[in-house]
Amino acid sequence: MRITVLTGAGISAESGIRTFRASDGLWENHRIEDVATPEGFRRDPALVHRFYNQRRATAVRAQPNAAHRALARLARHHDLTLITQNVDDLHERGGSTEVIHMHGSLLGALCAACGCRWPAPLVMRAQDLCPSCGAPETRPDIVWFGEIPYHMEAIWAAVENAGIFAAIGTSGLVYPAAGLAQHARRNGAETIELNLVDSAVSRDFTQRRIGPATTVVPEWVD
Ligand code: BV8
């Protein structure tokens, strides 16, 4: 039986990476429109690069936690599809080998002119030139609001074929990720939500495990 798991910022919170909508969340320091939309990037690429350079520096210093490691163990004994909204690489550094990053990755750079991708340097600048076409149009390889998330075909398939769909540490506020539980349920999956508190889509889950991810995820996995 396939298990499909969706993670959000809450699974990395205990690794010291702030979530978006907590009281001290990232968005508090910036308006979403200024740092996570193509329009915001066109308006002020230096601000957006500063925002992502700061998050990249935090992410490379962070360590995977017991929840990331528990999901890596789950993959060793089950047919698991791991989908994350997160742009850090803590799942990979926690031992997961196949991770679908539907909102992109802090470790990736993208040329807005030719679409070429390459490993992002720790500090990206608006005037960096694309190694392929030479255009000064480099951006973080991140899916912003209004852009189409990556790997949606594979994501819909993994959700439709899941016997169990679990969402861990996500507020259920951002679509299409927030709609995946309802889609899984409509396709016959058992749905379980693991979170500190209710999310915006808790009604879509038949089971709940309330608590910090480093407690409830290993308990669920093991
Ligand atoms: C798109 C960039 C079209 C990277 C992000 C309806 C249908 C379709 C689209 C829309 C729709 N309504 C509105 C839209 C448009 C929009 C949207 O959803 N807007 C919202 C604000 C209403 N969506 C889009 O634009 C998306 N694109 O729709 O294209 C399309 C549609 C379908 C199919 C094809 C094409 C693009 C969305 C991507 C935007 N980019 N980030 C970055 O900077 O990181 S989203 C951003 O929010 C992050 O990626 C983050 O992952 C994501 C979701 O947040 P969460 O991960 O849930 O984090 P949050 O802080 O909100 O919550 C943390 C949770 O953890 C909480 O529940 C908390 O309780 C819990 N927690 C905290 N600590 C712990 C914990 N849990 C356990 N243990 C703990 N210790």
From TrEMBL:
Give the required cofactors: Zn(2+)
Record bears the keyword Cytoplasm: yes
Record: active site: H103 (proton acceptor)
Give the EC number(s) listed in the UniProt record: 2.3.1.286
* Keyword Electron transport attached: no
Provide the protein's localization.
Answer: Cytoplasm
One molecular function GO term is: NAD+ binding
Q: Where does substrate bind?
A: Y52, R55
- Chain positions recorded as Zn(2+) binding sites: C111, C114, C130, C133
Binding, NAD(+): 8-27, 85-88, 169-171, 195-197, 213
Enzyme class (EC, first level): transferase
Per the database record, which ranges form the Deacetylase sirtuin-type domain? 1-222
Q: Which Pfam families match?
A: SIR2
Q: Which family does it belong to?
A: Belongs to the sirtuin family. Class III subfamily.
Function per UniProt: NAD-dependent lysine deacetylase and desuccinylase that specifically removes acetyl and succinyl groups on target proteins. Modulates the activities of several proteins which are inactive in their acylated form.
Q: Please state what the protein is called.
A: NAD-dependent protein deacylase
- According to its UniProt entry, this protein's organism is Paracoccus kondratievae
Question: What's the gene?
Answer: cobB_2
